[in-house]
């Protein structure tokens, strides 16, 4: 499990319990029930912070739950360690079966490997749903088998894959999961002829946007939006208060963010990319551990990300209004004929007050476009915290 959290680890010098085999093997139906319970536990953990949501259930030989745990986020123990700490005799799991949603990690970084902690605790069997895709953290199953622990992987794998798909996709590809959001009228306009856009949607839809910001590691805009709107890009509650989790604001482009911009007082700080090279930006965000990115930068940035094949998810807010005119929610996507249309699969439709929220994903994952073949200008690929962007876009509705 790839996490950056402190935890108890056992060295080979520890007095480790023996690996007593369970009196009988827990049956498959009970194991599957425990995996589903572990997924419920995993969902209690935070979606942001770079770490996966992981749950763990410890069963005795009769299939009864002895302890449960989950990863509570950065700075807290891994799910396996959390569960082991809740045993009647903490970290003494002799003869127990550990059910985990993600393969236990097998690396030492800022934390020790969960595989070694399970071995030291005397766990007899480990069942996990999804293999850890991390280049440095995978291999926990093999290490456990090497130590004489029975290991079964791939139990309810499809369910766990769906639950963890955003994190898994980000780790496997080496770039964040990218969600593109826009709000428009029914005729696809994001602003009126004079550029005004506040407010296209109603309070319920706008509050949902703040909740989605809070569930994202980073929020992307271009400097055109920053210069036009001076947005705060914070996640706020109904009363205007800051929510506990805030996205990191990322400004794409080459023009510096003004010294007096509201963004400069954002509680998470500010990343100014100094480039329009989307591949470089996403690679840098991944290196920073930012797995979920929320794009809210207006038609120019949204269109560039979609055209480049980086959009993994779409959140489209539709208001029952008509504006007409040229202020479209999306610009040119490089599509020449109907056969090249970006087909989507609708995964959800929700009514929020008078507005609709349509959630969709690509019907077929798009292959990222070679930047050299794109007409969009690319400047330096350096990404820092003190450079910035020029992306001329009409105003984003939320600020």
UniProtKB/TrEMBL annotation:
Q: Give the residue ranges for region: Disordered.
A: 1-29, 361-399
Pfam families in the cross-refs: dCMP_cyt_deam_1, RibD_C
Q: Where does Zn(2+) bind?
A: 78, 105, 114
Catalytic activity entry:
2,5-diamino-6-hydroxy-4-(5-phosphoribosylamino)-pyrimidine + H2O + H(+) = 5-amino-6-(5-phospho-D-ribosylamino)uracil + NH4(+); 5-amino-6-(5-phospho-D-ribitylamino)uracil + NADP(+) = 5-amino-6-(5-phospho-D-ribosylamino)uracil + NADPH + H(+)
Which pathway, per its entry?
Cofactor biosynthesis; riboflavin biosynthesis; 5-amino-6-(D-ribitylamino)uracil from GTP: step 3/4; Cofactor biosynthesis; riboflavin biosynthesis; 5-amino-6-(D-ribitylamino)uracil from GTP: step 2/4
Q: Which GO terms describe its molecular function?
A: 5-amino-6-(5-phosphoribosylamino)uracil reductase activity; diaminohydroxyphosphoribosylaminopyrimidine deaminase activity; zinc ion binding
Q: What EC number is given for this enzyme? A: 3.5.4.26, 1.1.1.193
Which PROSITE patterns does the entry mention? CYT_DCMP_DEAMINASES_1, CYT_DCMP_DEAMINASES_2
The record's free-text note on cofactor binding: Binds 1 zinc ion.
Family in the record = In the N-terminal section; belongs to the cytidine and deoxycytidylate deaminase family. In the C-terminal section; belongs to the HTP reductase family.
| Name of the protein this chain belongs to | Riboflavin biosynthesis protein RibD
Q: Identify the species of origin.
A: Schumannella soli
Q: List the taxonomic lineage.
A: Bacteria, Bacillati, Actinomycetota, Actinomycetes, Micrococcales
């Amino acid at each position: 499990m790839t996490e950056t959290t402190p935890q108890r680890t056992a060295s080979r010098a520890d007095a480790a319990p023996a690996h007593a085999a369970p009196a009988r093997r827990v049956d498959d139906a009970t194991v599957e029930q425990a995996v589903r319970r572990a997924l419920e536990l995993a969902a209690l953990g935070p979606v942001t912070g770079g770490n996966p949501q992981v749950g763990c259930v410890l069963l005795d030989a009769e299939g009864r739950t002895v302890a449960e745990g989950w990863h509570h986020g950065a700075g807290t123990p891994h799910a396996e360690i959390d569960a082991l700490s809740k045993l009647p005799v903490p970290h003494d799991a002799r003869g127990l079966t550990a059910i985990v949603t993600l393969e236990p990690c097998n690396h030492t970084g800022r934390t020790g490997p969960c595989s070694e902690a399970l071995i030291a605790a005397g766990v007899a069997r480990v069942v996990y749903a999804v293999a850890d895709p991390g280049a440095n953290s995978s291999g926990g199953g093999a290490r456990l088998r090497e130590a004489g622990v029975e290991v079964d992987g791939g139990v309810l794998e499809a369910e766990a894959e769906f639950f963890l798909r955003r994190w898994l996709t980000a780790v496997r590809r080496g770039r964040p999961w990218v969600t593109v959001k826009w709000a428009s009228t029914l005729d696809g306009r994001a602003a009126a002829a004079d550029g005004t856009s506040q407010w296209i949607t109603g309070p319920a839809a706008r509050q949902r946007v703040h909740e989605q910001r809070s569930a994202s590691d980073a929020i992307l805009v271009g400097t055109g939006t920053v210069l036009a709107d001076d947005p705060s890009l914070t996640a706020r509650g109904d009363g205007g208060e800051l929510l506990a989790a805030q996205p990191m604001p990322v400004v794409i482009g080459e023009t510096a963010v003004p010294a007096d911009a509201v963004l400069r007082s954002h509680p998470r700080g500010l990343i100014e990319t100094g480039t329009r090279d989307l591949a470089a930006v996403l690679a840098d965000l991944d290196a920073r551990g930012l797995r979920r990115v929320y794009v809210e930068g207006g038609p120019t940035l949204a269109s560039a990300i979609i055209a480049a094949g980086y959009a993994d998810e779409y959140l489209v807010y539709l208001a029952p209004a008509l504006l007409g005119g040229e202020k479209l929610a999306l610009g040119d996507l490089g599509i020449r004929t109907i056969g090249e249309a970006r087909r989507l699969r609708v995964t959800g439709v929700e009514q929020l007050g008078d507005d609709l929220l349509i959630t969709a994903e690509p019907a077929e994952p798009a292959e990222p476009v070679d930047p050299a073949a794109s007409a969009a200008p690319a400047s330096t690929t350096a990404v820092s915290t003190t450079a910035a962007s020029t992306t001329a876009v009409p105003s984003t509705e939320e600020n």
